[in-house]
Specification:
With 135 residues, this protein is of the alpha+beta class. The protein has helices spanning 25-35, 41-61, 105-112; strands spanning 13-18, 66-73, 78-85, 115-120, 125-132. The protein has 3 helices and 5 strands, in the order E-H-H-E-E-H-E-E.
Length: 135
């Protein structure tokens, strides 16, 4: 492929300010699909699912202001999803029960991610998850 034919490189970090009211998760998934169209469909779907779960948790358990960041970490070959919120409450990895319709968010993230965690700040926290990426 000639240099001029190469696809433009994706930005290192994409950010999305999350407003006070829950965003349209389908619009967020479309945004992710467009931003990462150069990645495999399976990876895009994993990113969409992990983002949906982390953002939903930030609205269910966190406080405004909230922000979503997607960052390429080329040194490790990973894509990092970061969701900030202003609540000091830390997420917990629960147990999924057959009849429960909720409570599976971090279980899903835990299965998709190479690793995930939380960073506390003087106000709030950042919950992050790293997914293996095929840049």
């Amino acid at each position: 492929m000639a240099a001029s034919d190469e696809p433009p490189s994706a930005p290192t970090t994409l950010s999305l300010e999350l407003h006070e009211h829950t965003p349209s998760l389908s619009a967020m998934r479309r945004w992710i699909s467009g931003a990462f169209s150069h990645l495999s469909q399976d990876l895009v779907e994993d990113v969409q699912l992990a983002v949906t779960e982390l953002v939903s948790n930030a609205y269910d358990h966190g406080r405004h202001p909230r922000q979503l960041r997607l960052r390429r970490i080329e040194a490790t070959g990973r894509l990092r999803i970061e969701v900030d919120d202003a609540s000091p409450d830390l997420p917990t990895l629960g147990r999924s029960r057959l009849n429960d319709s909720r409570g599976r968010g971090l279980i899903i993230v835990n299965k998709l991610a190479e690793e995930w965690g939380v960073v506390t700040h003087s106000i709030g926290k950042t919950v992050w998850a790293d997914l293996a990426c095929d840049y």
